[in-house]
Amino acid sequence: MAKDRNVPISPKAVRLLVQSMRRAGMEEEALLVFNELDSALKTTFIRNEAIGLLLKMGRVDDALKVLDEMLDPEAKFQVDDFTVGLFLSGEIRGRSVSEEEIVEFVSKFGERVVFPNSVVLTKLVSGLCRNRKVGLAWDVLHDVMKKGGALEAAPCNALLSALGRGNEFERMRELMAKMEEMGIKPDVITFGILINRLCQSRRIDAAMEVFEKMSGGVKGVSVEPDVGIYSTLIDGLCKVGRQEEGLRLMEKMRSQSGCAPDTVTYNILIDGFNKVGDIEKGRELFDKMKEEGIPMNVSTLNTMLDGLSRRGRLNTALEFFNEMERKGLKGDFVTYTILITSFCNVTNIHKAMELFDQMLTGCPTDAKVYRRLISGLSQAGRMEDASFVVSKLKEAGFSMDIVSYNVMIHGFCSENKPDKIHEMIEEMEASGVKPDSVTYNTLLAYLGKHGDIESAYKVFDRMLNEGVVPTVVTFGTLIHAHCLDGDIEKAMRIFRDMGSKSKMPPNTVIYSDLINSLCKKNDVEQALSLMEDMKAKGVRPDTQTFSALFKGLRENNLLKKAFQFMDQMVEEDCNPDYITMDILTEWLPGVGETERLRKFAQGFPVLEPQPQQKDGIVTL
Q1: Which residues have C-beta within 8 Å of that of residue 222, sequence separation ≥ 6?
Q2: Which of 62, 138, 130 lies closest to 90 in space, CA to CA?
Q3: CB distance 613 to 581 below 8 Å
Q4: Which domain holds residue 602?
Q5: Model confidence over 385-421: pLDDT tens digits?
Q6: For the whole prediction, is pTM greater than 0.70?
Q7: Total tally of structural domains belonging to the chain
Q8: Can you state the angle between helices 263-275 and 279-291, rounded to 10 degrees?
Q9: Contact of 620 with 613, CB cutoff 8 Å
């Protein structure tokens, strides 16, 4: 009507009309009004309204046309802070505007000396870093700095955090220098990021330098460290074995800064001392924590239990756990995992099962505790109980992982239950868990032990077809199977293939197996050759290797060779076991060499040193 009657309409009236249409959901009508307006009425505010509507409707190209008009150096109505916010909002990201284009917008706005505020810029930098575009985030901040934008610490902190995650310490230093150059004051978060990343990379001395600078007023910067920074530093010190320094830092924290340690600080120190075996100091800190009225949490409980369990003080750990429960501090699944694992490790399966039942009655569970108990029961040969725990794991909504399947298969192999082994493998494959080298090696060992070489090679062929790379254990298992079967030729063929085809060096176990089998076949010469081969390849023989060789040497009464290898055992600090001593005791006294046997048992060489001549002088 105003247009038809040639009545001038004011910018205020246009603003009211467009706003009202937008609020009423009449986007198309509002845009029609905008398009009909004279350019003199298209103020920055009205243009921003139009851009907002176009972006909301997904008409990004039309919005960019309006933006280009506003970015024209000759334009009467140019961009402002609200325009920046529109183009950097999350609404258009992920549509037809890429992150690179958004960064370009920031640069264009900067040319008009208009910059995103700290909140918007921080969100942009964080988003770029989250999408692994740290270089782009760096460019944005550098561009804003170069064009004179007023920056605060927050967007710099977002970039600093991302650089820290990538351990890019040189670029972190560069950013800090740039902040100083631009007069951007670092805050407690800035220093917290630096100290945290340095501590995580075990650069504790560098972290302590940053700490001293932040509180010492260096170059006009003085930021009071908070309890989080103190705790981070104490944790870093404890992780590199500097517990006493961590303790002193806590006292400094209390006396100089008036910043009191909290639950986390104490938990870190208790754990630090427990990890190095100083349980008494850990308990002392725990008592001090109680005296000061600092609340304990489940992490405190778990830290104390872990320390006591590591030192084998399981009864004390259990008493402490019961005491804390009586005082109302309930354990979580980590608590039960620590206790159940510890009792499994000392084969106290009864107590482990008792704790498991207790956990089921009133504690949210985690798959880890089930799996640990399954492993403990399987290793103890209690497969019926292990199967019961498997059923409970499934009832709780968890699934078996490859480690759990492997220990169950190993347990059934030990009990010689082929039906159960087959059942486990079928279930494993049905659940989508692929067998790994441990699975195949377990099956190969089982089949080899029971003399089913043919089936063992079928399993080996399947292993190769599935793309699972054989390990030294795989070859050792096949060699052991042939040794048990008495086929030393095939065992030696695999041994030779390891070096020539698979390029996998044999280990001590393989050499011991072969030497034992060769000596049983009375082929001592080849056994001695393998001992030389071990020496050449840098593989150290163990007690079993020497014992196997001594049997062959005894059968052929090769005394001098036996003395040489007895001295080698002494030299390499390889202690004889009862098998070694049985072989030598049956042999040496009967040939008048009791004195040499005595010296060997006491850890002394049995051969006299040979004279050597040097520069015409004979020495011993």
Answers
A1: 214, 215, 216
A2: 130
A3: no
A4: 541-620
A5: 999 999 999 988 999 999 999 999 999 999 999 999 9
A6: no
A7: 2
A8: 160
A9: no
